[in-house]
Structures are given as structure tokens and as C-alpha cells.
Amino acid sequence: MDVAGSDHAGNAASFSPADDDVFARIAERYDRLCDLFSLRIHRLWKSHMAARIAERAQGRILDVATGTGDIPVRVLRRLGRNVDGVECLIASDICANMLSIAKGKLAATSANLEFAILDAHDLRGIPSNSVDLYSIAFAMKICDRARVLTEAMRVLKSGGTFLCLEASRIPAGPVHRAYLIYMNWCMPLIGRLAASGDRSAYSYLLRGIHDFPSQRAFANELRQCGFADVEYDNLTFGIVALHEGRKP
Q: Whole-model pTM?
């Protein structure tokens, strides 16, 4: 996953790869952990995001914190042979181990695909005003949001699209509290079994789920960064939300 530095301001999970190389350690198990933690529902959420990306696919697409490549895989699957409008799809992550798995998943594609080791906080190597669509899925919770949004705004072209899929809050307060109680119980249990006792493999996620802003609050952060036409879709009652914005 894609985040660097030790500054945890705006970082819901208080995560820093400089202190913990957890994603390098669990790269081979990461897809299985996602299935276990979400009861495989993450596949539907990612497919929903991929469909939105495919609807707008043109020019240069940058998928930040691509992990094992789930979003690019689904985007290219949806596009099929209709990739003529896509100049380049860049799958990026700060963790080489995760990106290596993504390369394996996408090895058979004939699309104009690039891979890059990039930090979401500092996308050096990506020119300003050069990206038509920027996407990030389930990594904003471990990032300094303000820094990531600033970089997203920088690299996007005028009129470019920003998409973020992330844990959110069920609008019905009692239901959300019940959901958190369930996650507090089941996630450590599943994590200990599936991650061979590696607490970092699930503790960051639990903190991020608890402390990531509500849909409205994160939408306001997008607006404060300068994004226009900000909106969001609740998925599975609001357990996660897909946020969208446009660079004016």
C-alpha cells in the first residue's frame, strides 16, 4: 500500500511504512486477508469502482496504492478491447512486493500498462497536469489525507476525475456502532489466524475503520482541497463509500 513518512496528521490509521513494513511481509497473503476481513464483499466494492473508472476511461489513468492490482485488473476486464481511448494506465504502489504481484496478475494484458514505485504523498515522476483520472482504493485511511489530495490535485489535468474508495460510516448511528463492535471482535480473531499472529496486518485497518472521516466530512476535505462537483455513493449501507471529484 502507498504511504510514506512518519507524519500521522490526517492519517486515520496512524500508519507509517518507515516504522512497519507490514505490506511487504503479507503481500503473498494480502488478497486472502481482504477476502476474510470483508467476507469477499470487497470484490463487489472494487468492481463498482472499476465500472466508474471504465465509464470515464480515457487518456492517462493513475491508480495509486494499487496493492496487488485489483482495480487495474477489473478496469481492463470491463474495457475488454475498448481501450483505444486509454493512452496509459499506470499502476503504482510504494511496496515493491505488492507491485510484483500486481504485475503477475496483469502480465497477460495487451493494454498500454505501466508500473511504478510511487508514494501517494509525493508523486515525483508524474508531471503536473498530466493525468486524466486518479484512483485510490482502501489506502486513504493509512495516508496523510491532505498531502495525498494535494498531490492528486497537482497531477490531474483541468477537468480530470478523482475517485476514492474507502471505509466510511453507516448513516444509521446504532447500526454503525453495532458494526464497529462486530469488527472489534472479529478482525483481531481473523487476523491472528490468517496473518500468523502479525498484529500489524489487521490493527491498522481497524484503527482506520474507526477514525476515517464520515462521508460528508471527507467530501468537505475534497472541496477544501479545491475539487469541484464532489459527490459520493454509499456501498453496502455505507460501510464503504466511493467519492468522486473533479479538478476545475
A: 0.92
